[in-house]
């Protein structure tokens, strides 16, 4: 980090005012002093690497340049990882983030999704054949699932794979316009193979969706093979480096052995063998979903670092005439926007840790065919993914707006964080669709409750007595906050279940009743996720060994998270008079008290994320707070300034100033 | 519009199912059949002009191209408007909207701010000198207000203009890094003059902020003049076509006559003459704020057109096994996210229309010397600007997310609408700051109420009895809805005042008490704006003359706007038991009923906005609903597909496959 002599004085003062030692919190977040040292060591290697210093910042590059830069940077990081012998997942990520935090990795799906899929879904023989090729990048692949017409409803995919027993081949086709594969990352220009999801037809019967390894480009010339039309899908909101692609297939034949056959099989004669369970194909999807919570939490954390540091540096408006202008961080409205988001970033970080551990703990059982925990794992991973992606991406935008005009410039780094973060609301399961899956789980648990059956561990609280009132008192105990959230879920679950019952009572089908109550079901599912995140935050600050001062600060944040969530969703908490009006007063008063309480530690809390400037890439979020010099430098290096007078001046403006010359007839 | 033969059958069916005549609603929105015809005529003039059709879509252009192409278009528009004798602002607007949709003009501030400011603030002599030059584009100007360090707090601007009576000149300086101008539109590369806002010093005294005409570039060579450093501020979230600029002045001398002196003056000897009334210079800012309300409404309307048409075409998920997949617009959750936004777009459109009329009426009074309505004009314009830009820009993002994966592509047109509308939250008065100004007005009104003084009509709701309960019954009458909003606003105003009062009594200064209550004050201001917009919507549908079927459909939409706002902000309405629990249930149920009621008219409601495809520029929002073909065409024409194999393949990937990384030593 930069020497403190150059640090903006407001920021330096903030740091000296903190009531806790931020190193303790850093150690807590990153797993101890040794891990933190390693992290910084790796980040420093990147910072000093001469190769990575080359090239302009991403914002100054055209999309084509960015795609190009993205490829070499990431391949270079791969090489560094290998040279340094870095194998730990987190340590690999520190290197990659420090080198190319905001540049998409076109081979990311190859390593992150395809190799695991081969391991999980391919037979021993297939693995032997493909893994070495994949690991050496001779084979570069992606996962081709989504089509123009179908993303959510996988069973509706239209691409076909028809088995021909005569030649022992599958014939692949995208028979309609809407069957064209559209969106898979890296598909457009990068890969030479893909794992294609298609409807299997054999012996004249449709057998549902299966996976096929398909070569799409020549291994040497990289040109598309016959029958393959493939390309990039064009510019997007973000993800510019990524060649998300489209693929049209016309009678492409692949050998029978190219169907991924660990579980289901097609024999030579075309006989179809079902998998032992259709749940087995499910694992890698969940894994990716589980990782999203932590990654969107990181987006929000970065946005908080930027906006809170900037708010400490930025001064705007004299508080009293002729007096000093206030740091905008001192405005209550600014705190009201930012501090709950800071709390949210921690809450989501901890929720991400939870779901990661949960997956690690339960997945081995599932892989062995024991499915007891599958419904919970599914519900929790779906719910936390959707809830965190919505909350964090909206939060990033709020952080951006809190930086005023400068937040709108790419110099702030914030627009980029947003466009990287927001698609998490859509991919790996569209959020609303996932919420309704959570709701389905809740309805099942609710009917267990009604039938006196035992409940899954994560919903034990559904047994609580709905007529009970809140225990909330002046001290705003964490326990009473958790109870309030659980009460709210329980009531909303009951409401949704009643809604369905009522409509069935009117003579409608189960299906119609469900669709007429999905808004209420969504409310229940959202409240469930919220309650879980609150409880998990409370558990994290209560149980984990932390020094007292750090715990105090984290507890304030945790309380703020709980109280703010109640105030901003008050109706759902008080509709049944769970809180009385005095308790409401207490809560809204506590909200402002907490904002004040957190104020002196705000900068130390964001410092504790310990993101180097190379990761933030923000003129506003710099550790040294020298934001104005950085904004000036950014402006001076704008590509539009390479020429003092642009050609368009001579070509268009000058002639337009001379009214008689017919400029546009010549164009 | 496309001929019906090619229209997607689902969309055609939707159009047959509506309960009202779309044309009648268009007539109502645009104030009569003549105006609708005129609007279409102007749109057609632009869309049929081959000049505008010859450029590639903006998403495929580099930033440099975006600027250059947009500049050409706008110069052409200027010329055309003259040729066609389009002088009315609305006429120009509709023509431009279709000619260069979503392309922020690189010379726009010249006509929108620069010329009007000369007209309003210049002396007769100055007008005579500058206006002809400006009209002929010999002089191209902008308005240079915001500095790197100050946007909100104008009195804190640091640029200085010091009068030198010896040479009768002002000496202009940017004395600090934070004092450099940063953000003014078109300042970077396009303009050769600007109106600089600077601190005036004369006879050793600071006389506050004044405006100075400063030439920054040579009229022939377009090179920056001595003492001027000027350039583009670099890439941003959006506004790629606009060269928002920076400007540093060092000892630039301009003649005394270049200070805009209609109101305040500096005499030859340096004597400063104050303006007769400090507020007179105020009008154009209000006009721009009023325009933002309509801009925001229009952006949300376009996003609704796109997402609702697409939701009628998109089918996803079998509702019962083996059955047809449902149109996603039939999912209650989809309706719940989109229809309230549809209602909001109408609500905001009517608010914008009101704002404009109110502006005209009030400025006429002000010009006539009657300043009574000035505080109201200010409060209403600030409040509606902030409320509409927040609601509409968040709404546009929701529309985008409702389109699933395809929403994220620039093919959808939605990301562009978002990045164009969202800075409306920041410029022309940062929204939080605006809301606090509204709050200040409300507190003044509250003081009047306490003193028994008369209140302006639109504030009279404050005097209602806060102990009264809601009149809401099963029929959910519009007047009970309006009363609910007014009750909530009145209560929140009282609570905010009470909070300040309490802090003052506990010994805090008024300033501290204010800042200790700004969160509550903001809540009150938002509730006030929400009540205002709701009431306006209700009055518009109840009191206007229109076709009865249109009226009944619009009434549902208006009800939805109001009911949804209550359900989503329930806490604020029930924390004092204004609604009892039965009434809450009625409202929640009504919400679901209204979604179902609006469903058959959803497409007709968006068709009525009557946006040609050329304005929407969206593969998903096309009138004919041929979305998949359009998405496929978009992908095929992606610039990344110009080469079948990208250079990066040979440069980086191929060597990496062979384990060779030596290319990095060459980079
Ligand atoms: C940046 C990005 C990268 C991507 N990368 C990949 C990739 O690498 N590989 C790949 O295969 N795909 C990829 N995708 C595609 C992505 O997986 C899909 O977009 C996603 O699964 C959502 O599906 P959809 O687009 O069909 O949305 P839709 O299902 O069409 O959703 C549209 C709307 O309909 C609603 N809806 C749909 N079904 C229901 C229902 N049953 N009940 C209620 N509401 C419903 C949704 O809530 C949503 O509001 C990517 C997408 C993006 C944006
Ligand atoms: C696309 C775009 C175009 C622009 N075009 C122009 C142009 O043509 N000409 C021009 O002159 N400018 C232009 N601007 C600049 C714009 O006018 C300013 O950014 C705007 O006025 C906001 O000021 P700021 O950036 O100083 O925000 P700040 O005031 O720094 O706001 C940052 C944060 O501080 C908070 N805050 C500030 N003061 C207070 C207070 N007193 N009380 C409570 N909270 C406070 C705000 O709520 C906000 O959250 C443009 C900006 C953008 C994004």
From TrEMBL, chain A:
Example of a GO biological process term: lipid homeostasis
* Protein species of origin: Magallana gigas
* Protein name, as recorded: Acyl-coenzyme A oxidase
User: Per its Swiss-Prot or TrEMBL entry, what cofactor is needed?
Assistant: FAD
Tell me the pathway. Answer: Lipid metabolism; peroxisomal fatty acid beta-oxidation
Q: Which amino acid positions bind FAD, per UniProt?
A: 146, 185
Question: What coarse category fits the chief subcellular location reported for this protein?
Answer: other
Which GO MF terms does the UniProt record name?
Answer: acyl-CoA oxidase activity; ATP binding; FAD binding; fatty acid binding
User: What is annotated as the active site?
Assistant: 428
The similarity comment for this entry is:
Belongs to the acyl-CoA oxidase family.
Q: Where is the Acyl-coenzyme A oxidase N-terminal domain?
A: 21-140
The entry's localization annotation reads: Peroxisome
| Residue ranges of domain Acyl-CoA oxidase C-terminal in the record | 478-656
| Keyword line | ATP-binding, FAD, Fatty acid metabolism, Flavoprotein, Lipid metabolism, Nucleotide-binding, Oxidoreductase, Peroxisome
Source superkingdom? Eukaryota
Q: Which GO terms describe its cellular component?
A: peroxisome
Q: Does the keyword Transferase apply?
A: no
Q: Which Pfam families match?
A: ACOX, ACOX_C_alpha1, Acyl-CoA_ox_N
Q: Which residues form the Acyl-CoA oxidase C-alpha1 domain?
A: 282-443
UniProtKB/TrEMBL annotation, chain B:
Q: Which cofactor does it need?
A: FAD
Q: Name one GO biological process term.
A: lipid homeostasis
- List each copy of the Acyl-coenzyme A oxidase N-terminal domain by range: 21-140
Q: Name one GO cellular component term.
A: peroxisome
Q: Which residues form the signal peptide?
A: none
Check the record and name the InterPro entries matching this protein: ACOX_C_alpha1, Acyl-CoA_ox_N, Acyl-CoA_Oxase/DH_mid-dom_sf, Acyl-CoA_oxidase, Acyl-CoA_oxidase_C, AcylCo_DH-like_C, AcylCoA_DH/ox_N_sf, AcylCoA_DH/oxidase_NM_dom_sf
Q: Boundaries of each Acyl-CoA oxidase C-terminal domain copy? A: 479-656
Query: Any idea which residues are catalytic in this one?
Result: 428 (proton acceptor)
State whether keyword DNA-binding applies: no
* Domain Acyl-CoA oxidase C-alpha1 residue range list: 282-443
Q: Does Transport appear among the keywords?
A: no
What UniProt keywords apply to this chain's record, in alphabetical order?
A: ATP-binding, FAD, Fatty acid metabolism, Flavoprotein, Lipid metabolism, Nucleotide-binding, Oxidoreductase, Peroxisome
**Pathway it works in:** Lipid metabolism; peroxisomal fatty acid beta-oxidation
Q: What is its main location?
A: other
Give an example GO molecular function. acyl-CoA oxidase activity
Q: Which positions does UniProt annotate for FAD binding?
A: 146, 185
Where in or outside the cell is it found? Peroxisome
Name the PANTHER family for this protein.
Answer: ELECTRON TRANSPORT OXIDOREDUCTASE, PEROXISOMAL ACYL-COENZYME A OXIDASE 1
Give the protein family.
Belongs to the acyl-CoA oxidase family.
Protein name (database record): Acyl-coenzyme A oxidase
UniProt source species: Magallana gigas
